[in-house]
User: What shape does this take?
Amino acid sequence: MTESTYRIQGATGEWEVVIGLEVHAQVTSQAKLFSGAATAFGAEPNTQVSLIDAAMPGMLPVPNKECIRQAVRTGMAIEAQINKWSRFDRKNYFYADLPQGYQISQLYHPLVGEGAIEVTLDEKDPDSPTKRIGIERIHVEQDAGKLMHDQHPTRSYVDLNRSGVALMEIVSRPDMRSPAEAGAYVKKLRSILRYVGSCDGNMEEGSMRADVNVSVRKPGEPFGTRTETKNVNSVRFVMAVVEIEARRQVDVIEDGGKVVQETRLYDPDRNETRSMRSKEDAHDYRYFPDPDLLPLELDDAFLEECRASLPELPDAKRKRYEGELGLTAYAAAVLTAEAETARWYEALLDACGDAGMAKAASNWLISDLFGALNRLGKDIDDSPVSPRQGAELLKLVADGTLSGSLAKQVFEIMLETGDDPAKIVEEKGLKQTSDTGAIEEVIAKVLADNADKVEQYKGGKEALFGFFVGQTMKAMAGKANPQVVNELLRKALS
Amino acid sequence: MAELTDLGIAAIRDGVRDGEFSAREVAQAFIDRVAAAKALNAFLVETPDHALKAADAADAARASGDLKPMSGVPIGMKDLFCTEGVPTTAASGILAGFTPTYESTVSANLWAAGAGMLGKLNLDQFAMGSSNETSAFGNVISPWRRNDGGNAALAPGGSSGGSSSAISARLCPAATGTDTGGSIRQPAAFVGISGIKPTYGRCSRWGVVAFASSLDQAGAMAHDVTDCAIMLGAMAGFDPKDSTSLDLPVPDWAGSLSGSLKGKTVGIPKEYRVDGMPAEIEMLWEQGIAWLKDAGAEVVEVSLPHTRYALPAYYIIAPAEASSNLARYDGVRYGLRDLPDGAGLQDMYAATRAAGFGPEVKRRIMIGTYVLSAGFYDAYYNQAQKVRALIARDFEAAWERCDLLLTPTAPSAAFALGEKQADPLAMYLNDVFTVPASLAGLPAMSVPGGLDAQGLPLGLQIIGKPLDEQGVLDAGLAIEQRAGFSARPEQWW
Assistant: This one.
């Protein structure tokens, strides 16, 4: 573990920030936590609401096994203790988006206990420090509905589509000490969730959001009073909240005030946090075990199935890419950061059919494909070029059919047309030539046209070799095999 | 021939099967009798069409030889069960105008077994009460009168007071009840009928308006033990929509019914001899012991040492759960909404709930909110849960010495309406004998044993081991056969 050196400069000296995050992650599942209603994002209001979600009289919750399974798999992915006996509690409060008048959650006996994840502050830098962030627990709970205040001049409307959707609340230890660490934690957590497939990690759509707990202290002193900024919905905002909230708290203390334990809201437009409610008017949630539900008891067969269904996780994958495939730490980190990238890379390598091409494939994906996708504003999942096509292109380079520069041309055409590289090479005549006779003819002409340079070269100015290569390639419109050109030129000049 | 409305489930079933009368004739006879009994205020909604439709189906089924266990039997449905297309209020103003789009599992099971519905029965509001005086739609009146020549209106018991009154007055041959702390057994005892609460989890709670989820259990109320067995068999069964439902087959209770208790040991819990219990109830209890011995049972005294803590624990746990279960009645989605001019959300909640809930419901919501609140949770709710575990352990220890327990059902006969209303604690004491079995989730039933000096029925309670409804029903039958209880209220309404 490395000590963070992030400090806030105050009038009275340096301050350290202490951060804990509660991440709410929507469980990927066709149905809600306790009802059969669908969970698709963006549906018309109140079209995904069962009698249970609307809390009609006499309706009862029945746990959705898939939601439990996803939370258990997530727990296993963070190497956490899985509690074979857990229980649902009711959190009681009145609000119009909460039809039951209580949220079914887990306070006393959560499904997942103590775990941890390892974060790298700068994933692109192989020498960047790593840090273990403790996770206190993961519990499963229902989401609430949504209030809409902009539909009518004097009334509010309620959309219950989200009501009852399964959430995992992933509670970290107060182990983070800088905005960068908080950002890296959220990114890494999102990456793991997406690998596991238990949450799509889509922060824009609200499937993942964080409550950011921040306090400040003089280094070495006990924890200060914390504030909790609710529902922060991007990595960038999480980092911003830490920064401005820590600054605000330092200013409050240094101005002789006290930090109040309270709930705050982040306003991204003004980049400030605002008080929502203080501890004094906090709810008394009257938690108690939900009498409609039996304790959740997991058997070994279920746990084994959960474990067996876990994919290779990012840390393990990264190490394997470095160790077995011989990729650089940088490349391994980039390729494994997102499940989709790793999946694409592995499909590409499969299609190549030769582990020896791992590096070439990695280089091409990171520079050429990522470059192109960036330019086109597309995700890797919407890539116009498939892994199979990418592999074909790489094979054409490996077997000498295409030079590097020809391959780039072919790739551009692939992006435009979606055609297979072999077809493009055929149609556009972009095939690289290794025909020694043709190359020798061109070389002879280049040398004849540049007799003065030949003299200089032979006189010791060996740097001119590149000039001859360039001229030859230019005369052959780039289609000559550069290796063959090199060989023949050397021979001709010797 | 006796009046059709004097018949119970088995007699109606057999008569329809044998062609003595049609199911339609039966249904019509009860429909007419219900319509003429408004003075009892037992029915909140009458549904003659539902009863007639089921009757016609039964008559058609008879023609094709396809009769079901309750074909042609019109019953009453406690208005705590949601019934599709029929208003369901739990006798509360807050659900005024609410008509479910769904059918509770228990009522659906009964319709599938061939039964029809005469109507929805009045009850204590949200099943909170022991006298049926907390209904938003008026008290239910017992058909019974004291033999002192006075005509004080008596309580039919509660919360299933509409059910008990209607059966006793022969407005229906049987009715559903629900029992959270005695709400089937005590009213059955007050009007001289039989009623059984099965093991917690036997009957699905899906579609039953919740009072206290860990205690609520539906059951059958009828004239005799056989009818209770038939009806409970039709109601019970595993329901995947209720997580607390028992995934077990339903035994053929009616088919296996036997009044012989040879080889059975009946325990008499000494802690149930409470101070101030009327001598008549003591005597009836002794009589019950004699009857069970006569049926072949061995009788032993047992101890249930934590009995005295049962009532206080119950009146913490049940209100705690109720305070949360009733939070959904907020005026937002259905039922009553009181939205004063310019009101915000909190004002709407306050106004709606103030107007919609009756005083007893409010009292229990407040008690429940208090016992769950920060700083009091451990002292009340948690402590009550520990007591509950000890009570269950008491019963487990008793089962090592006996198979069944015999106790009085209630510490008194029916009281007059208004008599105990001023003192909620006196009212809660009615449940003193019924609450322990509820806390332990055990099957228990009340059967009529005799009349007191005022001519009012008294009941005996049999409590069984988990899942041993058969043992409970058999002992009930043994008492029924020996008690020969045939008293019925004179018709004054």
Notes: Chain A has a mean pLDDT of 92.
